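Possible regression after last week's pipeline update?

I re-ran a chain I had predicted before the update to compare outputs. Posting the input and the new output here so someone can diff against the archived version. Not blocking, just want to make sure nothing changed silently.
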Amino acid sequence: MSVTVRSMTGFGRGEAEAAGRRFVAEVRSVNARFLEAAVRLPQPDAALEDRLRRLVRERVARGRVEVTVTATGAAAVHPVVDRALVLSYHNLLKELAESLEIDYEFDLEDMVQLPG
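New output (post-update):
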């Protein structure tokens, strides 16, 4: 069987339930010369964005593809502190303050605002 794609513009929506949560996924695509994949996931699942982006790239040759997943229900969130990353931020910010010759003490509130 042969399939001919006539348009890269489309929309799809799916729903699923797992682990006490309800997920809704929406995929939108529009024509574009190159592939651009944008993925948005709920914060507890944000670590899966690269994996989902890779799946899109394996299945789509070109176009702008937007994948948005929303979730309702209780998520089992178990925060983990990346101590090496925090220390790297601290050292980098300390060096920056010293090179700018400013006095600034970085506290925990400053640190939790940084990515990662």
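Follow-up from reviewer: compared with the archived run. The chain has three helices and four strands. Marking as no regression found.
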